[in-house]
Structure formats: C-alpha cells, structure tokens
Amino acid sequence: MTKGYGLQDKVVIVTGGAAGIGRATAKRFAEEGARVSIWDMNAEAGAATLADLKQLDTPVMFQAVNVVDAEAVEKAVAEVVETWGHIDVLVNNAGITRDGQLVKFKEGVVTGTMSDANFDAVIGVNLRGVFVATRAVAPYMIKQGHGVILSASSVVAAFGNFGQTNYAATKAGLIAMTKTWARELGKYGIRVNAVAPGFIMTDMVAAMPEKVLEGMVAHTPVGRIGAPEDVANSYVWLASDQAAFIHGATLAVDGGIVLGT
C-alpha cells in the first residue's frame, strides 16, 4: 500500500467512482489508507470496484447514488457520517456527455440541433449534481472545522470543444462554483479546488478511431494521452496537507495541451 500524503483514516467520497478516473481516484485514496465511499449509478461496476479496493485492507463502501437526486444524496451523506463519523474529502467526479452540434446546417437546411433533453441531462449531472453533493457535505465539514472539496472541470472549460456546448458550459461553471465556494467556505477551514484534465485514456477515449487518438497526442506537448492515475494522483495531492495553501484554484492535468496546433 502506497502511503505518504497523510490521508490514513481520512473519509473520502468519490462520485462516479466505479469506472475510469473515478475508479482510479477511489483506488489511490484507498492506497493511502483512506476510508472511501464509492458513489455510482452502475451497481455492477460499483461492486467490481468495491471488491478491488477491499484487497487494499482499508474500509470501503459502495453506495448507489444519483447525484441529481437531492434526497438520495443527503441520505448517502448521512450514511457515510453514521458509518465513519465524519467526511474529510468530497471528490465531485461524476459526469456525462451528450454531444451534438448546436445547429447542423447543410445546403441551406437545418438538419439537426442539440436537443433540450441532451442539454438538460448534462447540466443536471455535471453541474447540478456537483451543487447538490457539495451542499449536502458542506454542513458536516463546517461543523467539524475542516474539509476538502474537489471537482472535475476540463480543459474544454477554457478552450471550448466542437459539439460540446452543454459539456463545456458545465465544466466552465464548475470553475466559477469552485471560486465562489472558496470564498464562502475558506473561513471554516474548508479548501475548495478543481482539476481540469486534458485527454485521458478512459474507455470512451480508447474507443475512438486511431486517427483521432493520434491527433490528440499531436496536440499534447508531452507526447502522450493521460492516464486516469495522472488525475487521481492530482486529487490525492490536493486533498493532502501538502497542498494546504492551494485554495480556489483549477489545476490543469493535461500534458500541456495546446489546442489548434
């Protein structure tokens, strides 16, 4: 077990923790000896992740939670506190994509648009879900006088991305929320930061055509696509006392990507 960040017995919630970056993040905290609650709507993937983390000999649990459901979120937070007594870290990782152009136009005719349903779904999970989870956890952190809230933004928040009006809007919104909460919660000993990943080799990225992947690498100065562990390591560091004076910041974990070059 890798330990070195002072996170032994800390209580951590990772939303969207059953796959991809979330799973890697939950595992890294468990490797540090933290007690981890994995939130996800995919019970099968959650059970698999739970079984993997249990091998690390640290307390872990899986909770089937839809972050859009405020009642379910508040119940899950209460269960974590009842089980382990407090909450030290919230990682707002859960997110979805529903890509599509704002308007598709061909030969003078509108052939498609981004639907209201797809726009609302992404706003719901990626933005409202973070709001709901943070609102539920913050009172416990305020009462105990400390805590860390971390949220998953993206490089698209700064650069935009073709076909991602909804997704880019949520990731930009998370940066604004992070800065706002940093102002509001800092006086209670709660640090609030965001991480902005670039291209990360999740299952979704791995399924892309080889030519697209090559283009991603060409746009990334370090010459590779990121691994979920690259982001997970950033979360662990930001949650630790080694980052005690980092507050209201957005950490780019993108290999120095320069879009359009």
Which structural category fits the helices and strands?
alpha/beta
Please tell me what the overall shape is: globular
What is the number of helical segments per DSSP (H or I, 4+ residues)? 9
- Label the CATH architecture: 3-Layer(aba) Sandwich
Strand content: 15-25%
Structural domain tally: 1
Q: Strand order across the biggest sheet?
A: 3-2-1-4-7-8-9
Using only CA atoms, what is the Rg?
18 Å
| SSE sequence, one letter per element | EHEHEHEEEHEHHEHHHE
Family: Belongs to the short-chain dehydrogenases/reductases (SDR) family.
Keywords: Oxidoreductase
GO biological process, one term: fatty acid elongation
GO molecular function: oxidoreductase activity, acting on the CH-OH group of donors, NAD or NADP as acceptor
Give the topology.
Blueprint: E1 11-15, H1 20-31, E2 35-40, H2 43-54, E3 60-64, H3 70-84, E4 89-92, E5 103-106, E6 109-113, H4 116-144, E7 147-152, H5 156-159, H6 165-185, E8 190-197, H7 203-206, H8 210-218, H9 228-239, E9 250-253
Parallel strand pairs: 1-2, 1-4, 2-3, 4-7, 7-8, 8-9
Antiparallel strand pairs: 5-6
